[in-house]
Amino acid sequence: MRPSNEFKVPRDLLDKYNTAGPRYTSYPTAPEWQDGWGDAEGFEVLAQNNAERADVPLSLYVHLPFCHKLCFFCGCNMLVTQKQDLVTSYLDALELEIDRVSRRFDHARRPVVQIHWGGGTPTYLKPDQLARVFNALSSRFNVAQDAEISLELHPAVTSDEQLVTLKQLGFNRVSMGIQDFDAKVQQAVNRIQPYELTRDLIARCRELGFDSVNTDLMYGLPHQGLAGFEATLDLVLGIRPDRIALFNYAHVPWLKKHMEAIKEADLPTPDEKLRIFEMAIGRLLDVGYRYIGMDHFALPDDELSRAQEARTLRRNFMGYTTCADSDLIAFGCSSISDMDRAYTQNERNVQDYIAAIGSRELATKRGMRLSDDDRLRRDVINDLFCNLYVDKQAVAAKHGVAFDATFAKELAALAPLAADGLVELAPDHLHITPRGQILLRNVAMVFDAYLDKRPASERRFSKTV
């Protein structure tokens, strides 16, 4: 285990690298994708994927956008509604989409190794609705016996009946947002969630036998301070979740209008945010967690930790995953499929998604076909984010390139970052240092062939620090 002081970054370097940049949940990033896609493009890339990747397993994502109330920090595509007829119409459309897409795959050769439900709030659904969605998947796809099946919970709206139903259906992992237990912070972001409620729900999940129980925290929220967030960490570490995601709140009211409800004057300064983050890293490392990536921590015996040690960790739109070689097929509004050579995204609006499924076959709205260069750079960026290490020979052999010649410009651009202690440049590999983990997005940006083509004024990304 590395000492926490290795992760401290001098303030002058933070100022130097604090620029807008992608989080690289995909490469190329979503702003590069094209609008105007429809059924023809959607079915074409599905057919290509099943032909070229006939023996590659599948991962499935389902987007359930509904919430009972709005959390002001939320960056998800969600909808607050009490209209059950709208929910029913959405589930009708979702089942149709699952049925139509499932017919395009050879299920005997392509088992499902991972399922994840996100939102919104998946536990907005009643137990019978949860069962309906799961059965729509399991009756049409070949779900492996040892598949990783997970969803996101909101403790304030999750009942024991829902938990029992999820366990009976086969879910084995759950993740729940905490963000902060401080009452003043919770009031400011419109998410009231007492510690006792969360503690008891996690205890019940473990009692029911879920394999992994994970939590999300967020720093940079209004009224947060060092002492208050440390108190939240004390409570979280007493629960000892298997994994902890420590997200940096991105205040982007120009993208998410509801964030205007958060007063900028109430937000911690960049320096305060950094001190909170550094303190959290230190506390988590001191009690045995491993720093996995940009904002994720896991216990040493967790699958993520073991995968990173073996350099087989991967990252997709569902987060970090041990399902190293699988293609992601996504269902529901705004959901994104990652099919190795193409990305597709559905209609974002709930009503538009329902209408598309009703009048067409698919709800595909946007997409992008990846060139060989895109796939090469995606692998390098993925290795940086997941394994903190790029094996030049492995990349060269997979893609049929000479690494140093292909990336001569990028290696030259990395030299100043190496001088600042963010990355180690060796003849046969690149290695992210502990300091570089804090600024991982900045290192990855060097390999982004699209950034220089887009004016800085059009880079509508959050700050890297």
Describe the protein in words:
The chain is α/β, with parallel strands linked by helices. It folds into two domains: 29-369, Alpha-Beta Horseshoe (pyruvate-formate lyase- activating enzyme); 372-448, Arc Repressor Mutant, subunit A, CATH 1.10.10. 39% of the residues lie in helices and 20% in strands. It is built from 17 helices and 20 strands. Strands 10-11-9-8-7-6-5-2-14 form a nine-stranded mixed beta sheet, sandwiched between helices. Strand 6, helix 5 and strand 7 (173-179) form a beta-alpha-beta unit. It is globular. The chain starts with 10 loop residues before the first helix and ends in a 20-residue tail after the last helix. The mean pLDDT is 93.
Keywords:
465 residues, pyruvate-formate lyase- activating enzyme, 9-stranded mixed β-sheet, 2 domains, Arc Repressor Mutant, subunit A, single chain, alpha/beta, 20 strands
Number of domains: 2
Under CATH, the homologous superfamily of the largest domain reads: tm_1862 like domain
Q: Helix content range of the residues, please?
A: 25-40%
General form: globular
Largest sheet: 9 strands, mixed
Overall residue-averaged pLDDT value: 93
Structural class by helix and strand composition: alpha/beta
| Number of E strands | 20
CATH topology of the largest domain: pyruvate-formate lyase- activating enzyme
The fraction of residues in strands falls at: 15-25%
DSSP helical segment count: 17
What is the highest CATH level, the class of the largest domain?
A: Alpha Beta
Biggest sheet, spatial arrangement of strands: 10-11-9-8-7-6-5-2-14
Radius of gyration: 22 Å
N- to C-terminal distance: 24 Å
Low-confidence blocks of residues: none
What would CATH call the architecture of the largest domain? Alpha-Beta Horseshoe
